[in-house]
Design brief:
It is a single chain. Helix 1 (3-17) packs parallel to helix 7, helix 2 (19-29) runs parallel beside helix 7 (134-156) and helix 3 crosses helix 6 (118-129). The protein has one domain. It has 199 residues and is mainly alpha-helical. The protein has helices at 3-17, 19-29, 35-66, 71-91, 106-115, 118-129, 134-156, 158-197. It is 82% helix and 0% strand.
């Protein structure tokens, strides 16, 4: 496994998925006293989003090729999409209204669009497409599994995460991560333009 690739992918995925913010949103969507339902929803959400990231990351580039879309064009469009996501992270507020109704939130909104949304799916393709080296791809795979485990753990402990972090802490963290994601997005755009122009 390529360690620099693993660390780079882990950082990028942590920034865009934001496991802490996802845990706080998860806590607000599930009744606090229904632990069995919380565990089931956390496991289901994590499993669905992980499979989506792995499948889309592995086969998304081939699908784009059949559609006549180059990976360089995806880097540019993906970078713009990530920048839009980063802009929203920095400028928009998220409401945390505690729900008392028991419902299935595993597909929407937890898996799509929070954990495996357009930004993270695009990022998965970009990470897997950077090299055909098995060690590099293994690093990306390990990063996806690691971030999924971290997200699952934080969702299961979301009650305590909310107590420790609080809304103010999450606001600060989300905006800080948004700045980092914006820089990552510009890097993707730069790499795409550089590849297309051949410079």
């Amino acid at each position: 496994m390529d360690l620099p690739t693993y660390l780079n992918a882990l950082t990028a995925l942590f920034v865009i998925i934001d496991p802490i913010g996802a845990a706080l949103i998860f806590h607000s969507l599930i009744p606090a006293d229904d632990m069995k339902h919380r565990v089931r929803m956390a496991l289901k959400s994590t499993l669905i989003s992980t499979l989506l990231l792995l499948i889309f990351g592995h086969y998304g580039e081939g699908l784009l090729h059949h559609l006549g879309i180059s990976i360089h064009a995806l880097r540019i469009s993906g970078g713009l999409l990530l920048f839009y996501t980063a802009f929203n992270m920095i400028t928009k507020d998220i409401e945390y209204a505690q729900q008392s109704e028991r419902k299935d939130i595993s597909v929407f909104p937890m898996s799509i669009p929070l954990l495996a949304g357009p930004g993270s799916l695009t990022l998965a393709i970009l990470l897997f497409s950077r090299s055909a080296d098995n060690a590099v791809n293994l690093g990306v795979l390990a990063a996806i599994l690691t971030i999924s485990f971290i997200t699952l753990a934080l969702m299961l402990l979301s009650r305590y995460v909310k107590t420790v972090i609080g809304r103010t802490g999450d606001e600060i963290l989300r905006r800080f991560l948004g700045v980092i994601l914006a820089a990552l997005a510009i890097q993707f755009v730069y790499e795409g333009v550089k590849s297309i122009t051949g410079q």
